[in-house]
Design goal:
Length: 544
């Protein structure tokens, strides 16, 4: 297999693994929401958000940084340096894992009671804390194998992790429910699923590591052609931190926003609506809205991320024309592929809420946060583009500015709009980061996303939003003659099918997508759009 084929295969494996991991993560939340009450949903949501944020700090950026360092050393035929770098990284992972676990476990009561104002969450936070012991080491091993060209190990470990996490979380919650445990204990049982997931992921990576070690021993006759200099651990850590810290801080954007929301919702709303209703709003936001809002980015990020290595290669070659085309394509695909899902889920949020969860309360919260997801998509893609252009510091600063705007916006807007003000502040955060990122990218390579096509795109959004909302209103009228969940299911299917079917038709008719665009689209997207291009051709013939 050629290097190009191997690279493409590795990219596809990671994309598929990412899709599966995100889908499993979302699927887990639905049964748990039915098991928990408002207190349990709030406690589990807070524990999960806090854990994900600390996990990002402990492991994000390290795999890609280590992968780069190791691949470079192997290219220079310096296997002893690779071993030393790997050993240094494992030492760091062991120390950071212990520190993060202790921090989360010891700080849990204070955070839950005095910051988040949900004292019942303390048990759930402590239950998930041990997962942080192994995840840094798992991240190090993933980076090591990526640096040696083995993407499969990382992908399998991610999938196994989520499968074990889902089975343990849902299984324990239902068993403990049958045994009569209270909400806070149910949330703790579900949170413990993260620990089993981390053990599974670590076990998979350890298996591949031992297997690789045996292969290296067999091939030990191949030695370095020259004597290698011993790199001091201090130099290794400086190199790792220099590369990974900007990536870590950039990766914190979404998890930090979710953590902030969980921490401030009750603080900001108790004075307006009382503690009971404030806890309900927190439960709807963390257990329902954040889950549904996690759906639109999945496909868009997977498709666009496959273009990031191409952007990096074009930038390295200083091929400005190709670079401009690929940056434009990445942003355009991210927006075009996520928008129909955002429209469908937002306009049918009432039916989606009724179908997935145990009550219809919080439908507006689900719909509004899902609508804000389009800015999350553009933020994530533009962050990735800046990283591929070798400018992680730009995205790091932009994320910091956006999060500051999120905090300030939440405090100001919640005074007038309550929970909706907090959600608008989330959208504002992602929008500001996107604008700053695009400005930074344009300073490196001039590009445009849609240019004059924005008008046709906005018309498409407005028309399809009206159609989706109208179909949802019409569909829910059937509750008088059919069971509720059947009605919600049929309505969701109708809105989804109609919006997704009409979307490419409008894009083609309004010339948002044109014939010459297709050659640059990824193959799956090109196959979907190609049949609709006849409409554009037919329209051109009629005009002539």
């Amino acid at each position: 297999m050629s290097k190009k084929e191997s690279f493409i295969k590795g990219t596809l494996i990671l994309v598929v693994a990412t899709l599966m991991v995100r889908v499993l993560s979302i699927v887990q939340r639905v049964p748990l929401e039915h098991v928990f009450g408002d207190t349990g949903n709030s406690a589990y949501g807070l524990a999960n958000n806090l854990y994900l944020m600390l996990l990002t700090v402990a492991s994000a950026g390290i795999p890609s940084t280590l992968s780069k360092m190791i691949s470079e050393r192997y290219a220079l035929n310096k296997p002893q340096e690779v071993s030393r770098i790997f050993r240094a990284a494992l030492i760091f992972s062991a120390i950071s894992g212990v520190l993060m676990t202790l921090l989360l476990y010891l700080a849990a009561p204070f955070y839950a009671e005095y910051i988040a104002k949900v004292p019942e969450a303390s048990l759930a936070i402590r239950a998930i804390a041990p997962a942080l012991l192994l995840f840094p080491a798992t991240a190090i091993m993933r980076g090591y194998f990526q640096g040696r060209g083995n993407i499969t190990a990382s992908a399998i470990s991610q999938i196994i992790e989520q499968i074990l996490r889902v089975i343990t979380a849902v299984g324990l919650a239902f068993v403990m429910l049958g045994m009569g445990y209270s909400d806070k204990w149910l949330a703790a049982g579900a949170s413990f699923g993260g620990v089993l997931g981390s053990i599974g992921a670590f076990g998979v990576m350890l298996y591949y590591l031992l297997k690789r070690h045996k292969e290296d021993q067999v091939n030990s006759s191949v030695v370095s052609a020259h004597e290698e200099t011993i790199i001091p651990y201090t130099q290794i850590y400086l190199d790792i931190f220099k590369l990974s810290i900007p990536i870590v801080l950039t990766s914190l954007a979404v998890t930090a926003v979710n953590f902030i929301d969980g921490s401030i919702v009750k603080i900001l709303l108790i004075g307006q609506i009382g503690e009971v209703l404030a806890e309900q709003m927190l439960a709807y936001l963390t257990s329902r809205a954040q889950m549904v809002a996690g759906i639109p980015p999945i496909l868009a990020i997977a498709l666009s991320t496959s273009l990031i290595p191409v952007i990096s290669a074009a930038f390295t070659r200083k091929d400005e024309d190709h670079l401009r085309n690929q940056v434009t394509l990445a942003m355009r695909i991210a927006i075009l592929t996520s928008m129909p899902i955002v429209i469908a889920l937002s306009t049918a949020s009432y039916s989606v809420n009724g179908l997935l969860f145990k009550s219809l309360d919080g439908s507006d919260i689900v719909g509004l946060l899902t609508l804000m997801t389009i800015f999350q998509v553009t933020m994530m893609i533009s962050n990735s583009i800046l990283l591929s252009l070798g400018k992680p510091n730009y995205s790091m600063v932009n994320v910091a500015i956006g999060i500051a705007a999120k905090v300030a916006g939440s405090y100001i807007l919640s005074c007038f709009l309550g929970i909706y003000g907090i959600i608008f502040a989330t959208g504002l955060c992602f929008f500001i980061i996107t604008i700053l990122n695009l400005y930074a990218i344009k300073k490196i390579v001039p590009f445009f996303i849609m240019g004059k096509r924005w008008i046709g795109f906005l018309i498409t959004i407005i028309v399809l939003s009206g159609i989706g909302y109208g179909l949802n209103l019409a569909g829910i009228q059937m509750v008088s003659i059919l069971p509720d969940r059947i009605v919600f299911f049929l309505t969701c299917c109708t809105v989804g099918i109609v919006v997704v079917a009409l979307y490419p038709i409008f894009l083609v008719l309004l010339r948002v997508i044109r014939q010459d665009d297709l050659k640059d689209f990824p193959t799956p997207l090109r196959k979907i759009i190609s049949p609709f291009m006849r409409l554009q051709l037919s329209k051109s013939v009629e005009r002539k």
